[in-house]
Design goal:
- The strands form 2 sheets. A 3-stranded antiparallel β-sheet has the order 1-2-3, covered by helices on one side.
- It is globular.
- 27% of the residues lie in helices and 22% in strands.
- It has 110 residues and is α+β, with helices and mostly antiparallel strands.
């Protein structure tokens, strides 16, 4: 049976519980959820959803690169929004960070 490799790479926010940001088995990589926290200060980046979306996807980029992958290989993303009225701002930042890559995506208002 393949080994599960776990890690929390430098340049990403510290986990707030007993988990790792990345779990990798073979070539399959799973990333745990994260918010738009600055990895140095631990504070939310900016006050808007766009800056936080960019920070989250930048953290994902760092995590994936540490595991030998990149954002172009993302298959599915779950997005949780506190206010669905932030959808357009999140979407613009998402497109800015993801470029032409369009993985499957679920957006949920919480």
């Amino acid at each position: 049976m393949p080994t599960v490799e776990t890690s929390t790479p430098p340049g990403t926010p510290a986990p707030i519980g007993p988990y790792s940001h990345i779990a990798k088995v073979g070539t399959a990589i799973t990333i745990g959820g994260t918010a738009g926290f600055d990895p140095v200060t631990g504070a939310l980046v900016g006050t808007g959803v766009a800056s936080q979306t960019r920070r989250i996807l930048e953290s994902f980029r760092v995590m994936l690169e540490s595991a030998g992958s990149d954002l172009a290989h993302v298959v599915h993303i779950h997005v949780f929004l506190l206010h669905m009225s932030d959808f357009d701002a999140m979407n613009r930042a998402y497109v800015e960070m993801m470029g032409d890559h369009r993985p499957a995506r679920t957006v949920i208002g919480v």
